[in-house]
Amino acid sequence: MGMEEPRAPMTIEKEDQEEVELLAEDEAALLKKITALAEAIGKLPSLSPSPEVNALFTELVSACVPASSIDVEQLGPAAQEMRGRLIRLCSEAEGLLEAHYSDLLADFANPLDHLTLFPYFNNYILLSQLEYGLLARHVPGPPPARLAFVGSGPLPLSSLVLAARHLPAAAFDNYDICADANARAARLVRADDDLAARMAFRTSDVAHVTKDMAAYDVVFLAALVGMAAEEKARVVEHLGRHMAPGAALVVRSAHGARGFLYPIVDPEEIRRGGFEVLAVHHPEGEVINSVIIARKPAIAVDAAGNNGHAHAHAHGHCGAVVSRPCLCCEMEARAHQKMEEMPLEKLPS
């Protein structure tokens, strides 16, 4: 890609400095560091992978991942503006990184044999294991037969890992608004007859997908689909209108300082979108994204407030609505045990 226009700098103005003084010492130091990194990233002529870009984003992630008491949503206007711009820079850089590695992988006869070349492949292994474990615990029943991943991008590792390791009979529809991203993604499964038959790549804004949404047992919503809170709320509300009763929704979010990297999703927004929230999980360590598991109720309520049993989803596991479970995690222990037992080298062919 060619050189991009320089971005406006993000500096610590008077308002930022006053806010820093109101924070605890460790929180103030973190905010100053993140603001300085945001300024440096904003000055880069391009966010395509390079030693300088990689070093800055590695430093940013390293600063945001450790546990912190900072509540990024309670920061003042100047810091919120910096955070919003930084999340968008992260999104742009992530897209360029995935496109770069998708092109690199496509040069191999079987791209799926070389996924470990992607530097964060192990993170996707762990995140997919976590999401699958949370779904199995909180939405019990037969494995889902058809899933949608909204915001799949040029390197759809989540779908690939879930399809190959956890749901070997399921069909996946990957939605992205960018045709080039879908073209890149489709090349990755060309040498694997099984995955090529079970993976579809659809170029569409999810806001325009209506009837098709009722076909899915589970819908995954990527962290960077709807980066502003109001955008995310509109997407969730749309899914709530068009998904099938009993279908599950998996939403990626963030917690603590990781909210400088990805948008934070309020579980109340999921409820207002028409879902029952079954679990909210904030992992530690390598997995950066928080995970919200929700379900569209299988009980329909009419305008008079009367309950009526909705039809069960044709493909899924749609019995009675699951009551909200305890979130202490024997599941987490099982998931981590499975992570330790599972080889991470590459996807099975």
Automatic annotation (TrEMBL):
Belongs to the nicotianamine synthase (NAS)-like family. Keywords: S-adenosyl-L-methionine, Transferase. GO terms for molecular function: nicotianamine synthase activity. This is Nicotianamine synthase. Synthesizes nicotianamine, a polyamine which serves as a sensor for the physiological iron status within the plant, and/or might be involved in the transport of iron. Its EC number is 2.5.1.43. Pfam families: NAS (PF03059). It catalyses: 3 S-adenosyl-L-methionine = nicotianamine + 3 S-methyl-5'-thioadenosine + 3 H(+). GO terms for biological process: nicotianamine biosynthetic process.
